[in-house]
Amino acid sequence: MSYQVIARKYRPARFADITAQEHITGTIQNSLRMGRVGHGYIFSGLRGVGKTTAARVFAKAVNCERMIEDPKYLKEVTEPCGECESCRDFDAGASLNISEFDAASNNGVDDIRLLRDNVRYGPQKGRYRVYIIDEVHMLTTAAFNAFLKTLEEPPPHAIFIFATTELHKIPATIASRCQRFNFKRIPLDRIQGQLQQICDAEGITADADALQLVARKAQGSMRDAQSILDQVIAFALDSEGERVIRYEKVADLLSYIDDEHFFMVTEAIANADAAAMLDLAGMVNRNGYDEQDFIEKLIEHFRNFLIIHNLRSSKLIERPEPVKERYQRDALRLTPQAIMAMTDFLMQTQRELKFYAEHQFRFELALLKLIELGRGTSQMATAPADEKKKPEPVTPPSASAPATPSKPAASARRPKAAPAPESSATPSGLPPVPEPPTAPPAGRAAARPQGAKAAGSIDFGSWKQSFSKFGSNADQHLPAMNRQRVEESADHAESGAPVAVLEQLRMEWGRFLEHLSARGLQVLVSHLHASELVSCSPSGVVQLGCCRKFSYEELQHDSALLESELAEFYRLPLKLAVRYDAERDACTREKSVFTMFKELSETNELVRYLISDFGAELAY
Ligand SMILES: [Zn+2]
After folding, report:
1. Taking phi first (over 0 means left), then psi (-120 to 50 degrees means alpha), and beta for anything else, what does residue 255 get?
2. If pLDDT is split at 50, 70 and 90, which confidence band does 240 have?
């Protein structure tokens, strides 16, 4: 017998076999029982969640002889019998009562006219002719219009089922004449359960973890899960000769970045181990993993910690039991505030990564930044490590933050004595945490006797080295601000080095605004929302461009206050210059909120979805 792919072999033949769409199959079965079958349906939802399958079962059910002739069966079972002539025709793919039409390749007016002509003829056998129009959103406007008439006055024997992944692209004139069913993403455990059943039926023993991995990779699509399982079976079975699917093989096949790697990230954060972090970044790069993907999974990793912190339970974490236990244990190593800060930062990095060519560099920088964001929040776990370093007589001169690449000379160049620890937030926006007694030395000035792996210090040697592939003048290839930063840290004691780097100010800008809000300066913050950081001169003059006249005047008025807040937050001797950006003002004014909303509703997937599925509208 020829090989049949799993998705086809195990395609549901009954409503009850369609996974996780009970809200739809139940409604359809009800309407069958009551004899209230409509003429137009829209099945929307992600690919591979059962839209076409449900449409086929529906077509089979409305024509099933037993359903038509046996009221008791109809009432009690409400499934195609699979035995009558019509059902057998359907199963053999020989029924004339079902036409599947792919709108992606037949999307013109002529195609629709052909279909329309075809619709006029009733069924020779059975009750209904069912037309399944897949990817219906691909039809041209003209094609939709050609169809409208048919949909308005459908022949009594015709049922149209429009399947689409993009509901919002269907004209309202069509959508309003149909019953709409939105298919849900299939939950992980339901996919896993289905895969388990298939393995059982195939006589294959599979690790639960392995199947969970497959299910996770499919991201809510049953068809994807089944295709991956096909691949896994082909890969995992032949070499061993036994019908067993092991986790390691699947992880290997799917180039899956193991949870272990993410625990290594948290480990490096907790130990402030920059070298380990860079090793990890190198591993990601060497293995050809996608950095964005890694960051996305890292965000999920932090989310899992937050779940533990908030719920004190790991039941919402979709992982094997031992991994859940590890989450339980490791969650305590970081405070929720630090986790939030890191998650925020990672999401920002993820967005930014798209716009830069030097992914690897930014990726490394981002991982190193995590160490800084997590600093001081993990004494509990690092206590033993700190203990070992106790003999070293290096105590920071003040409560200043230790130097890191992203905050190179902050402490060294503080204009005034360290402020009393009354300030409500540290530069990273985290609540103040008492510095551990054995905090690492502040800045290079204090030297680094422990070598490259010294806690809290960044190993610039290896950091720079990772760019050596650019050639001998590697530094010149670094983006300007980073080059500046590297140089700065290397010899920040020299005079004439810039006080601050614009990029660095920008990175912390959101937190600065939060800090102002926390101090009750919300009005100032709202004016700052109309402004952006334009530049920062070597002497520390920060230029702010404001695109709203009124806000500009208010900021001018409060510039002394703002300047002192700025200097205190960043712990740098910054000066402020506010400039009115008339050009941007004009263009924002021209582009009213309504225009922007309209633009977004056309270009932004999410906004479109909110509008089409939730009826979102602009409230301004
Ligand atoms: Zn039947």
Report:
1. left
2. low
